[in-house]
Amino acid sequence: GPPGPPGIVIVEEITENTATLSWSPAADNHSPISSYNLQARSPFSLGWQTVKTIPEIITGDMESAMAVDLNPWVEYEFRVVATNPIGTGDPSTPSRMIRTNEAVPKTAPTNVSGRSGRRHELV
Protein backbone atom coordinates (compact mmCIF):
# COMPACT_ATOMS: atom_id res chain seq x y z
CA GLY A 1 0.00 0.00 0.00
CA PRO A 2 0.98 3.66 0.13
CA PRO A 3 3.58 4.71 2.70
CA GLY A 4 2.77 5.42 6.31
CA PRO A 5 3.17 8.92 7.73
CA PRO A 6 6.75 10.12 8.24
CA GLY A 7 7.91 10.90 11.76
CA ILE A 8 7.29 14.33 13.26
CA VAL A 9 9.05 17.17 11.46
CA ILE A 10 11.86 18.83 13.43
CA VAL A 11 12.85 22.43 12.65
CA GLU A 12 16.65 22.52 12.61
CA GLU A 13 17.38 26.07 11.52
CA ILE A 14 15.41 29.18 10.55
CA THR A 15 16.28 32.29 8.55
CA GLU A 16 14.05 35.07 7.26
CA ASN A 17 12.98 33.03 4.23
CA THR A 18 14.14 29.44 4.74
CA ALA A 19 13.63 26.63 7.23
CA THR A 20 15.82 23.54 7.42
CA LEU A 21 13.72 20.55 8.45
CA SER A 22 14.31 16.91 9.24
CA TRP A 23 12.04 13.94 9.83
CA SER A 24 12.24 10.22 10.42
CA PRO A 25 11.36 7.96 7.50
CA ALA A 26 7.88 6.69 6.76
CA ALA A 27 7.07 2.99 6.73
CA ASP A 28 7.29 2.02 3.05
CA ASN A 29 4.66 -0.75 3.34
CA HIS A 30 6.67 -3.07 1.06
CA SER A 31 7.02 -0.55 -1.77
CA PRO A 32 10.06 1.73 -1.55
CA ILE A 33 9.41 5.42 -0.97
CA SER A 34 10.15 7.37 -4.14
CA SER A 35 9.82 10.92 -2.82
CA TYR A 36 8.81 13.19 0.01
CA ASN A 37 6.73 16.32 -0.35
CA LEU A 38 7.16 19.21 2.08
CA GLN A 39 4.09 21.25 2.96
CA ALA A 40 3.65 24.39 5.03
CA ARG A 41 0.75 26.19 6.62
CA SER A 42 0.71 29.80 7.76
CA PRO A 43 -2.05 32.15 8.94
CA PHE A 44 -2.13 33.52 5.37
CA SER A 45 -2.32 30.23 3.46
CA LEU A 46 -5.46 28.34 2.61
CA GLY A 47 -4.65 25.16 4.47
CA TRP A 48 -1.53 23.17 3.67
CA GLN A 49 0.48 24.19 0.61
CA THR A 50 3.42 22.46 -1.03
CA VAL A 51 6.52 24.60 -0.58
CA LYS A 52 9.58 24.99 -2.77
CA THR A 53 12.54 23.10 -1.41
CA ILE A 54 16.26 22.62 -1.81
CA PRO A 55 16.79 20.08 -3.24
CA GLU A 56 13.83 20.54 -5.55
CA ILE A 57 13.10 16.80 -5.54
CA ILE A 58 13.29 15.17 -2.09
CA THR A 59 14.10 11.54 -2.85
CA GLY A 60 12.85 8.68 -0.70
CA ASP A 61 16.21 8.11 0.99
CA MET A 62 16.45 11.68 2.29
CA GLU A 63 15.43 12.73 5.78
CA SER A 64 15.96 16.47 5.58
CA ALA A 65 15.41 19.39 3.22
CA MET A 66 15.26 23.17 3.23
CA ALA A 67 12.00 25.02 2.61
CA VAL A 68 12.73 28.18 0.61
CA ASP A 69 10.86 31.30 -0.53
CA LEU A 70 9.17 31.69 2.85
CA ASN A 71 8.02 35.10 4.03
CA PRO A 72 9.87 36.90 6.83
CA TRP A 73 8.29 37.17 10.29
CA VAL A 74 5.46 34.73 9.55
CA GLU A 75 4.41 31.75 11.67
CA TYR A 76 4.67 28.45 9.83
CA GLU A 77 4.01 24.81 10.56
CA PHE A 78 5.57 22.13 8.36
CA ARG A 79 4.70 18.56 7.55
CA VAL A 80 5.99 15.89 5.18
CA VAL A 81 4.13 13.42 2.96
CA ALA A 82 5.74 10.27 1.52
CA THR A 83 4.95 8.83 -1.91
CA ASN A 84 5.74 5.39 -3.33
CA PRO A 85 4.65 3.70 -6.57
CA ILE A 86 1.34 2.69 -4.93
CA GLY A 87 0.36 6.18 -3.88
CA THR A 88 0.79 9.00 -1.39
CA GLY A 89 0.50 8.29 2.31
CA ASP A 90 -0.85 10.27 5.24
CA PRO A 91 1.06 13.38 6.30
CA SER A 92 3.43 13.46 9.24
CA THR A 93 2.55 15.12 12.51
CA PRO A 94 3.16 18.86 11.92
CA SER A 95 6.24 20.55 13.30
CA ARG A 96 5.93 22.99 16.15
CA MET A 97 4.90 26.41 14.92
CA ILE A 98 7.92 28.55 14.16
CA ARG A 99 8.28 32.16 13.13
CA THR A 100 10.70 33.03 10.38
CA ASN A 101 13.22 35.73 11.20
CA GLU A 102 12.58 39.38 10.60
CA ALA A 103 13.83 40.73 7.29
CA VAL A 104 17.06 42.63 7.82
CA PRO A 105 17.79 45.74 5.76
CA LYS A 106 20.02 44.84 2.85
CA THR A 107 22.18 47.96 3.25
CA ALA A 108 23.47 49.78 6.29
CA PRO A 109 21.63 53.01 7.13
CA THR A 110 23.18 55.86 5.19
CA ASN A 111 22.87 58.54 7.86
CA VAL A 112 25.21 56.83 10.33
CA SER A 113 28.61 58.46 10.46
CA GLY A 114 31.60 57.50 12.56
CA ARG A 115 33.11 60.98 12.33
CA SER A 116 32.26 62.80 15.51
CA GLY A 117 34.05 65.64 17.24
CA ARG A 118 33.89 64.07 20.66
CA ARG A 119 34.61 60.38 20.99
CA HIS A 120 32.30 59.72 23.96
CA GLU A 121 29.25 60.67 21.88
CA LEU A 122 29.44 57.36 20.06
CA VAL A 123 27.66 54.98 22.40
From TrEMBL:
* This protein's record includes keyword Repeat: yes
Keywords from UniProt, A to Z, are: Repeat
Tell me which CDD domains the record gives: FN3 (cd00063)
SUPFAM superfamilies for the chain: Fibronectin type III
Give the protein's recorded name. Contactin 5
Q: Does the keyword Repeat apply?
A: yes
Fibronectin type-III domain segment(s): 5-103
Q: Which stretches does the entry tag as region Disordered?
A: 84-123
| Species assigned in the record | Neovison vison
